[in-house]
Amino acid sequence: MCEGCGCHSGIDTVVLKVEGMSCGHCKSAVEKEVKALPGVSSAEVTLEDSTVTINFDTHVVDLDKIKNAIIEAGYQVG
Ligand SMILES: [Cu+2]
C-alpha cells in the first residue's frame, strides 16, 4: 500500500448502530475500544442516534473485529 497517495488503500467508512450507550462515558468507552484496533483511523459516536461512525482499513481489520470490540466494551451492536 502506498501511504502517501492512498491509491491502494481499502479505507472504508461504516456506521454501526450501538445499543446501550447513554452518556459521555459510554461514548468515550466505545470510541476508545474501537480506535484501539489496528487499522481503525477514526471512530466517532453520536449519542443522539446511538451510532458510531468508523473509518477503517479493510486490509487490516474487518467488521467482525470491530463489532467484537464494541461487544467486549459491554454494548450491543444492532
Ligand atoms: Cu454511560
Automatic annotation (TrEMBL):
SUPFAM superfamilies registered for this protein in UniProt: HMA, heavy metal-associated domain (SSF55008)
HMA domain span: 12-78
Keyword flag Methyltransferase: no
Record keywords, A-Z: Copper, Metal-binding
Superkingdom, natural source: Bacteria
Residues passing through the membrane, by range: none
Protein name (database record): Copper chaperone CopZ
Organism: Dehalobacterium formicoaceticum
